[in-house]
Amino acid sequence: MDVTYRMAAGMGGLRTSGDLVARTQLDKKMQIDEGKKYVAEKLGIDVTDLSDEIAMRKAREENGIGLPIATPGKPKGFAAKKNIKELFDFDIRSIEALT
């Protein structure tokens, strides 16, 4: 977990795509490059945009997968997690427990 956490933090975490790429490594057992391609494909953006805070903010808003600062009218918390689960087909136990 320590290595995955460091990679997620290094990619900007929630500000960019670090949290999503880290989850591909944990949940889908992907290598980092494969995880980046998977996330970019699902978001409909280029892999180079994964580390761009502005491009990722737009992608996160459009897909309802959470922003670093809660914004009125945008999904946050469990709603954002639910959208992440549906978009990326991740196993998120807290969401599965509610359904």
Automatic annotation (TrEMBL):
Cite the entry's keywords alphabetically: Pyrrolysine
**Is Transcription regulation one of the keywords UniProt gives this record?**
no
* Pathway it works in: One-carbon metabolism; methanogenesis from dimethylamine
InterPro entries given in the database record: Dimeth_MeTrfase_MtbB
Entry's EC annotation: 2.1.1.249
Annotated catalysed reactions: Co(I)-[dimethylamine-specific corrinoid protein] + dimethylamine + H(+) = methyl-Co(III)-[dimethylamine-specific corrinoid protein] + methylamine
Q: What is this protein called?
A: [dimethylamine--corrinoid protein] Co-methyltransferase
Q: Which organism is it from?
A: candidate division MSBL1 archaeon SCGC-AAA382A03
**Lineage of this protein's species?**
Archaea, Methanobacteriati, Methanobacteriota, candidate division MSBL1
